[in-house]
Amino acid sequence: MTIKCTDIDHLLMEGDELALATAAKHAEGCAACSAKLADWNDISATARGMRASWDNDLLWPRVERAIARERRRGWTQLWQVAAALAIFAGIAAVAWITTERLRMKEFDRVIFTADAVDEVDKAQKSHVAAIDRLEKLAEPRLETPETPLMVSYKEKLMLLDDAIAECQTGIERNRNNAHLRKQLLAIYSEKQRTLQDVLREETNASHQ
Amino acid sequence: MHRISRLFIIAALVAPALFANDTYRYTQNVDKTMTFRGGRVVIDHSFGPLDIRTGSGDTIEVHAKIRSSDPDIGRQISVEISPATASGVTIRTRYPDIHIHSGSISYSVDLDVVVPANAPLMVKNKFGSIDVAGVRAASEFVNAQGSMEARDLAGRQRLENSFGSITLRNSAGDTTIINSNGSVTASNVQGPLAITNRFGSVEVHEVKTVAVRNANGAVDVRNVDGNATIVDSFAGVSVQNVSGDLDLNNQNGRVEVRDIRGGAIIQNSFASTEFTTIAKSLAITSNNGNVRGGGVGGSAVITASFAAVEVRDIGGPTKITNNNGNVTATDIRGDLTVDTRFGLLRAERIRGSLDADNGNGGVTASEIGGNARVRTSFSSVFLKGVAGTVTVDNSNGSIAVAGLRGACNDISLKTSFASIKLGVPSSGGYNVDARTSFGSVTTEIPILVTQKSESSLTGTINGGGCRMTLVDNNGNITIGRE
Question: What pLDDT does residue B236 have?
Fold first, then answer.
């Protein structure tokens, strides 16, 4: 590459290795440029010897704070991920608990728990006791029914007794089945009502 | 936030532990799908609800949810489904034999079945409900100890239950319902409907032709677009708005009938019978129960005993037979025939003739458009406003006749041990023959006497014409002017 003396300043200002090598090559054949290059080198050497460093009271705390902040941000992100996972796990657990509770509730609606059976047993015992009392009172009338209505009531009571026996047989092998227990309770209730009707009819007949 | 997160984590860890001992709630689902190849779908289920729905295709879908308090027992419960062949499919719930009498082992199976709408069904359940909808082929549903609900059916259907209710809505075919000790409700049935029940109520409305046979259960029938036949006992029967004829037989229960556009035949005993608006003829037989009503378009025949009969606004001839009960008949647009004993007869505004036989009961009648013939004893007879002939045969009871309409009609009044009092219109011409014993004959109007004694009088009024025979024994006879 051919350069002119006017280009030497540009090459020195660029200052990179290629530019300095090109300037040195040109200076070998040009005294003016050689002097200019020698001055440039002196100045550069002097400048390199003048390098100094010092502490800044404001900069370093700022840098430290920035580093701490960066560290904290890392932990926060970690906590956020952990919290999100925990919340997700929590929601999943609540959903699972709710589903399980619904399933249990549905199950307990179909198959009574021991507590529910105890309650039903209590109600049943109360019906049976009432029926026993009523049966004793109605027995003479039903033993030899004197009216078609009494015959009908007797027939109905026999039918109800058959149904009670059928339900009890079912309950012997399926004790907590809600339908069976409710059905038996309903039939006992019906029998109690029928016996009350028998006694009411008996009272009406005796008043006539 | 950390605290909340910890709580969630703890909950997540604890929750499974909460349900860890839930081994007594065993649940298992069974699902099967097959293609219907004809024949009949037989479903034999027990110990749980049975739901049947229909689909548009030819697929049979079975979904069962088995529940047991014992996992071993639960695993032994099965829903057997036979391969689909041209003769049909059988779906059966099988339970293991359990001989533990003191434990609390329990189980149940919910069975849901989807069948093609045109598949005939034979369905049985016990100790569970049946809920069926949309079946369009002849089918049979039998349940025991559980309710039954059916809707939107077509084709011949038979529904049978015991110790559970039956509810039917929207059935397009012949429908038979049999129940005992459970209520029956049927509505919107387009084919003939036959219901048999024993100890439960029956409620029917919006149906075509209906036949109900019940015993010891109330019957309520409304809006029948055809004939209705009802047999019941020991409970009330209410029938309303029947476009055809009604045939009702009840015992020991109140009967209430209204708005029958055909005729009605009603039998009842030991309870009251009430009716309103029967377009055609009416026949009632009632023992020991009051009969009351009106608005009959045709004739009426009423037989009763030991209770009152009260009828009004009858469009045709009316015949009432009663025993030991009062009879009241008003606004009869035909002849009235009454045969009663030991009761009072009161008749008003009778367009035709009155023919009354009473024993030991008084008779009061007014505004009779035709003849009046009355026989009674031991009671008085009051007649007013008779337009035709008057014949009264009484004993031991007074007779009073007044307000006779028409110029002249034959009059024959006979009694004993009581008086006869007759009011004669001024324009009437009569041949008078009045006789009594141990009494007197007096007249307030001029009579051309041909023979007279204290106890007899013969002559003519206004030149004679109609026959007037007045016979008494131990009573006075008075002929007065109107």
Answer: 95
Low-confidence ranges of chain A (pLDDT < 50): 207-208
Instruction: Look up residue A143 and give its two tokens.
Output: 């033993």
Q: Which chain A residue shows the shortest CA-CA distance from B180?
A: A159
Q: What is the DSSP letter of B98?
A: -
The three-class DSSP label of residue A69 is helix
The pLDDT assigned to B261 comes to: 97
**Interface probe, candidates A105, A117, A179, A191, chain B, greatest B C-beta count within 10 A:** A179
Q: Which residues contact A84 (CB under 8 A, 6 or more apart)?
A: none
What residue in A sits closest to B14 (Cα-Cα)?
A: A93
pLDDT of residue A207: 45
* Interface size, chain A vs chain B, as Cβ–Cβ contacts under 8 Å: 135
Of B20 and B355, the one with more pLDDT: B355
Q: What is the pLDDT of residues A147-203, one digit of tens each?
A: 888 898 999 999 999 999 999 999 988 989 999 999 999 999 999 999 999 998 766
What residues of chain B lie within 8 A of the CB of A156, using their CB? 181, 198-199, 216
The confidence score (pLDDT) of residue A206 equals 52
Tell me the average pLDDT of chain B.
Answer: 93
Decide if B15 and A97 are in contact by the 8 Å CB cutoff. Answer: yes
pTM for the whole structure:
0.80
C-alpha to C-alpha distance for B366 and B353, rounded to whole angstroms:
11
Secondary structure of B21-32 in the HEC alphabet? CCCCCEEEEEEE
Residues of A whose CB is below 8 A from B8 = 86-87, 89-91, 93
Torsions phi, psi of B72, nearest 5? -65, -45
Q: Is B173 helix (H, G, I), strand (E, B) or coil?
A: coil
* Identity at B83, one-letter amino acid code: P
pLDDT at B100: 58
What is the rounded average pLDDT of the residues B318-323?
A: 95
One-letter amino acid at A87 equals: I
- Write the pLDDT tens digit of every residue in B164-178: 999 999 999 999 999
Residues of A in contact with B27 (CB under 8 A): 103, 107
Instruction: Tell me whether residues B5 and A100 touch, CB distance under 8 A.
Output: no
Instruction: Please indicate whether, in this complex, the C-beta atoms of A104 and B198 are within 8 angstroms of each other.
Output: no
Q: What pLDDT, on the 0 to 100 scale, is given for residue B359?
A: 86
Supply the DSSP string of B299-324, one letter for each residue. -EEEEEESS-EEEEEESS-EEEE-SS
Q: How many CB atoms lie within 10 A of CB A56?
A: 9
Closest by CA to B188, choosing from B217, B214, B153, is B153
In 3D, which of B376, B378, B405 has the Cα closest to residue B390?
Answer: B405
Contact A83 B5 (CB under 8 A): yes
